[in-house]
Amino acid sequence: MTPKEPSCALPSRSCAGLGGLTLARVLHVHGIPVTVYEADPSPSARTQGGMLDIHDYNGQLALKAADLMDEFHAIVLEGHQTMRVLDQDGTLLLDKADDGTGGRPEVMRGELRQMLLDSLPAGTVRWGHKASAVRALGEGRHEVTFSDGGAVVTGLLVGADGAWSRVRPLLSDAVPEYAGTSFVETYLFDADTRHPAAAEAVGGGSMMAPAPGKEIFAHRESGDTLHTYVALSKPQDWFAAIDFTDAATATARIAAEFEGWAPKLTTLIADGDTAPVLRPHHALPLGLRWDRVPGVTLLGDAAHLAAPNGEGANLAMLDGAEVGKALAAHPDDIEGALTEYEQAMFPRSAEVATFEGAEIHGIDSEDNTAHALINMFTEKGQ
């Protein structure tokens, strides 16, 4: 590959995720060739998660840089910006309507990813390329070896390969650590007819019912599907003692943590139509930085993994757009472009983790009550 051909290397998860694909699209817009290497064998190999709210101060800026705002508006779920906060007894404390401003519109993650894939020339994404090793060759060049024995050498390597990045060790010895909380994820289908009380509690958008050490968060996806994330502040050993291969037993154990809560809330757990899925939260050290290493950089979770705070996908997309814009502005100075990107990315990601991370799903806090959450929304004008 020539220096103008960035290679997004994937060791395990998804370089063909939102950040890597946004980078590829912005480079394509500017006429810069790029190849994205993705471990998954096809676009449909894995489900892509639930809804995302795409913010006007980061995610939407990335889509504007990618010249995809019209396509984005076509997949927005209208009215889904509504948000409710309930107390443990089911009392509705806040019912924030969708103001129609488009500041944080909701889309399905899978549809957003497909939109980005559709915007790229055929062959941009090389499916079934799981990186097994990455090594520096000197003078800013790197070799990525794949599990099938193939390899590629590139003059610019961008690691958009998530929490357990194989590219990150080229820049830092930091590794993610358990953040002290986990989600347990489940779904209710046909909720309006089968579970009307739970459907009413969630409303047309999202619902949060927080308490110290725990929270029930749910949102309405397309149709009358309710997607629930149960957040618990527990050590990993606590979760390891639960047999998640036994759906009924695991569901009962998680639901027991919410004994005494309103049935319309606990129904979201106890009556789930899918087996509960454990999703532990890991994070990199807050404010992680590294010295400039020629020919390589990181974006998204590979660079600044944090516990869920509503910003991860948005930040990854903005990272991708900013890398692409910097390379387009400095086509003959890769190091200058990467330096410009990293100098802006480091404080941006640290600020978001500090500001948002303590407030959204900050379930270790003794003040993490519904009333405290409402105060936060009121003070911040969200």
Tell me what the structure shows.
By secondary structure, this protein is an alpha/beta fold. It folds into two domains: 7-81 and 107-176 and 285-357, FAD/NAD(P)-binding domain; 177-283, D-Amino Acid Oxidase, Chain A, domain 2 (2-Layer Sandwich). Helix content is 33%, strand content 23%. It contains 13 helices and 17 strands. The strands form four sheets. It has a seven-stranded mixed beta sheet, with helices on both faces. The protein has a five-stranded parallel beta sheet with strand order 7-2-1-11-17. Strands 8-9-10 form a three-stranded antiparallel beta sheet, with no helix packed on it. Helix 1 links the parallel strand 1 and strand 2. Helix 2 packs parallel to helix 11 and helix 6 crosses helix 9. It is globular. The N and C termini lie far apart (46 Å). 43% of the residues are buried. The model is unreliable at 1-5, 8-14 and 356-366 (pLDDT under 50).
